[in-house]
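User: Predict the structure for this protein chain, please.
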Amino acid sequence: MDNVIDYYSQFDEWGRLDREPLEFTINLHYIKQYLASSGTVLDNGAGPGKYSIELAKLGYNVTLSDLTPKLVEIAQQKVSELGLTERFNGFHVLNATDLEGIPDEMYDASLMLGPLYH
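Assistant: Here is the predicted structure, written as structure tokens:
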């Protein structure tokens, strides 16, 4: 896993979704289509939190996890800059396959996009 952490610690994942917006636009369209109109969401493997932030803007309560500490830090910074901190239930550095410390049966929905790429 160190190679994944090293790669994403150096890579501009936030900017990638801005430079190549088709992925983000399509995914967000379907996420919004299939989620209930409100609730709690776990974004597992959230990277820098781009989807999490959009869901928070829509009123969802979000918990964010990612394997890469730097990406979790970026997510926290972006959330703070946007004044969305109250919409987040936590930021966790975790492997997507081991969610120790995240409560069970607390979420209405869970996202897991990035970890499935790997």
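The longest strand covers residues 61-66.
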